[in-house]
Amino acid sequence: MHVPDGFIDAPVSVATGAVAAAAVAVSLRGARRELDEQAAPLAGLVAAFIFAVQMLNFPVAAGTSGHLLGGALAAILVGPYTGVLCVSVVLLMQGVLFADGGLTALGVNITDMAVVTTVVAYGVFRAILKIAPNRRRTVTVASFAAALLSVPAAAIAFTGIYALGGTADVAIGKVFTAMVGVHVLIGIGEAAITALTVGAVMAVRPDLVHGARDVAARRLELRTGAPVRTPAPASPDGSAVSGGSAAPAGAARPAGSAAPATARTVTAAPATKDDADTAPAAPRRSARRVWAVGLGAALLCAGVVSFYASASPDGLEKVAADKGIDQKTEDHAAKDSPLADYGVKDISDARLSGGLAGVIGVGATLAVGTGVFVVVRRRRAETDAEAR
Amino acid sequence: MTSAPPSLQVSGLAYAYPDGHQALFGVELTVARGERVALLGPNGAGKTTLVLHLNGILEAGAGSVTVAGLPVAKANLAEIRRRVGIVFQDPDDQLFMPTVREDVAFGPAAAGMRGAELAERVHRALDRVGMAEFADRPPHHLSFGQRRRVAVATVLAMEPEILVLDEPSSNLDPASRRELADILRSLDVTVLMVTHDLPYALELCPRSVVLSGGVIAADGGTQNLLCDQELMREHRLELPFGFDPRSVTAPV
Amino acid sequence: MGAGHAHTLYRAGSSPVHTLPPHCKIAAVFCFVLVVVATPREALWAFGLYAVLLAVVAATARIPAGFLLKRLLIEIPFVAFAVLMPFVAEGARVEVLGLSLSQSGLWGAWNILAKGTLGVAASVILASTTELRALLLGLQRLRMPPLLVQIASFMIRYGDVITDEMRRMRIARRSRGFEARGVRQWGVLAKSAGALFIRSYERGERVHLAMLSRGYTGTMPVIDEATASRAQWTYAAALPLTALAVCLTGWMLT
């Protein structure tokens, strides 16, 4: 949902620009705290990563695919300040280089997609970590919920900005109620990929997941007295120096990506200690929990909060399309579009249509969510069977 | 050996990473000025960790490092980093600026050099590695071998006391490998070369040390060391198939 | 947005537009777009004039029309949105070709189409006449915080490297028979994303080490100083100032 020029009027564009600038300024200071002096290269690389990940399309169903927005992912992996900076830089570069998102709408885009998503996601993430037992699985669940909520939150923000300065004369109620179904789905996609990605990082380099860093200091040991062998004739005795327990694992440290060995070295927090034998089983159980929590949250979003529907990236156009078709069917009672019933009800009562959209959102969410869940489980079973 | 202080003196160096994993267990190493020394050892022996101590990126948990008489400590970090030039294994990590010229200029400019003096320094460094005509190209448009040479130039531009190379011959085709060897031989600086490429070590470095299990396990003439089959086996060092170090007349 | 973007966006040249200092160009484009957005939508002729202005700039920069038009395609999703607007919007309705359309919806659609297109065209002209590096320098000269400029420049420098790693991982996946077909492949894609993040992060750490090793202390040494003469500023200001005149006339007439 890169908003182009002219979508939001000039005064509101300028105002959101100021908001975005302030948020970025705050983040600049915060990022220095989060990353120390490494801020520039690390944030730059993470921005490049977000940029790349946005190109990673994940197929949703036959023919359609979505891509990550990355706000929640960035916030969870590198912290909220750096997250805001990274996504902002990505948006800035997309605007200046690719004309993707208008220059005057940069404030809107940054406020909406960089600030709101990361702040909401990080807030939810931290809140869940605080109240839930501090385990690795909790991190996955928290990532799911954080990403799931961040998308509708961005939508609310967008709807708010639109209400203030939208140039198109479409009723606010209509704008966001129509978006509910679509955007909860987008949120689910975002949430699933975010949670799985964070889970994958947790499994390999838990120290890289911001907020799940742990430091274990140990006393240094000196191995002196071992003979340093000198040149020529082979004197066979040096075998005493074979490096102890630490030596082989050492390779993993700079290179990093060696999986299981490092996984147990650093774990999220005190109570963790996922033993080596439970580790392989963990993903499946966590996935089940994730989906349960996800569906609950989706219900909440679409049902209870249906009034604060979601306007979010890329779903915007979809909503416009749905809305258009919908209105068309109303006016001309034409064709049997899949949304025909939905359209007939939507005469001029925004509230009624809101409720309906919410219900449809819940329905679709449940259906797709359950479908995904079942499919993932079956797939897991298959791969487990295949893999020895 | 001259009366000047050794280019590098490491004594009793021990270090543990923040996650508790200890990588160095009391390293002792002295490299005299003008020497070329190969640092050999199996994966995970602590070679990279040692290298990162030489310019103070990692802070010694115990022991000390001095470079040409100057101890590595917070107070003189800027001077230490000028004196110790590290060429990292992946040139993409080292070449982070938009053009070759800016990249080579980065070090001296960070030290406060400007204008014609800077331009001259950059040109000289690029000339020494034969890359002068590529100054205005973006690094990622160069071949891998060229990037490695530019990476060497970025360090030479700081006129270091000691040049530290991490796996200089990795991923190079044979011609680039030889060109780099020619360049390294032509330089009159102290060189410490971390490598798994044993013939390369033999070709360039009269002396070698073996780092294994976080300590220096052997120290001596490269040729002698490579001929010591038991030592080699013990530290997981292997010569390429068909290579006999005895058959080569090593430079002394 | 694909890989190798850095090379396809910019069209090398030596036209007067190319040689203007980057910060003048960025400021000019930004002001121009702001003026366009602030123009009342009823002033149809004003948008025509803006388009003519941009065409003149594009001609001066010797950007072929085809190139410009192709780059405008990025706008398509919003064109779709704009086209639908007359059907959705409230208010008085008019009959056009047998369809009942909202009058304000039509205006809204026109508004978004016209302003959006002009905005995209202006950005495209900027990006195709200014090198990436120069753009960053320009932003720096315009007082964008240095840390932000650094982050952006690292992103540009390593965008290709990361995208390339992603491509290699995809090839590795596919050569082992993996094809992303539906939701059941999300797990695998997410693992790739996780691995990509770790690689990116670790590269960030290594780059930082390399920088430290060459005396980095938190600020980038300024090597190139781009300055703009008064004449260059005046030259660059011609575009937004003309636009402003058009805009003000528009306000007075409507």
Task: Describe what you observe in this structure.
The complex is a heterotrimer of chains A (388), B (252) and C (254). Chain A has helices at residues 10-35, 39-53, 71-78, 80-98, 106-131, 136-165, 172-204, 246-250, 252-255, 259-263, 282-304, 315-332, 340-345, 350-386, and strands at residues 57-61, 64-67. Chain A has 388 residues and is mainly α. Chain A has a two-stranded antiparallel ribbon. In chain A, a hairpin with a 2-residue loop joins strand 1 and strand 2. In chain A, helix 3 packs across helix 6 (136-165). The longest helix of chain A is centred in the last third of the chain and has 37 residues, at 350-386. Chain B has a domain at 8-90 and 162-245: Rossmann fold. In chain B, the strands form two sheets. In chain B, strands 6-7-8-3-9-10 form a six-stranded mixed β-sheet, sandwiched between helices. Chain B has a four-stranded antiparallel β-sheet with strand order 2-1-4-5, covered by helices on one side. The radius of gyration of chain B is 18 Å and the shape is globular. Chain B starts with 7 loop residues before the first strand and ends in an 18-residue tail after the last helix. Chain C is mainly alpha-helical and 254 residues long. Chain C has two domains: 5-139 and 227-253, no CATH class; 145-213, no CATH class. Chain C is 72% helix and 3% strand. Chain C contains eleven helices and two strands; from the N terminus they run ααααααββααααα. Chain C has helices spanning 5-9, 16-19, 22-38, 44-60, 65-72, 76-88, 103-129, 132-141, 146-175, 186-213, 230-253; strands at 93-96, 99-102. In chain C, strands 1-2 form a two-stranded antiparallel ribbon. In chain C, helix 4 packs parallel to helix 7 (103-129). Chain C starts with a helix and ends with a helix. Chains in contact: A-B, A-C, B-C. The interface between A and C is large, with 97 and 100 residues.
Average pLDDT of chain C works out at 80
Q: Tally of extended strands of chain B?
A: 10
As for the number of domains of chain C, it is 2
Q: Which chains share the greatest interface?
A: A-C, 97 and 100 residues
Taking the alpha carbons of the first and last residues of chain B, their distance comes to 14 Å
Total DSSP helices of chain C: 11
Strand order of the largest sheet of chain C: 1-2
Percent helix of chain C: over 70%
Name the helix and strand elements of chain B from N-terminus to C-terminus, one letter apiece.
Answer: EEEHEEHEHHHHEHEHEEHH
| Strand count of chain C | 2
Distance between the ends of chain C: 40 Å
As laid out across the biggest beta sheet of chain B, the strand order is 6-7-8-3-9-10
Assess the beta-strand content of chain C as a share of residues: under 5%
Q: How much β-strand is present in the residues of chain B? A: 15-25%
Q: Rough shape of chain B?
A: globular
Poorly predicted ranges of chain B (pLDDT <50, ≥5 residues)? Answer: none
The average pLDDT score of chain B comes to 89
Radius of gyration from the alpha-carbon trace of chain B, in angstroms:
18 Å
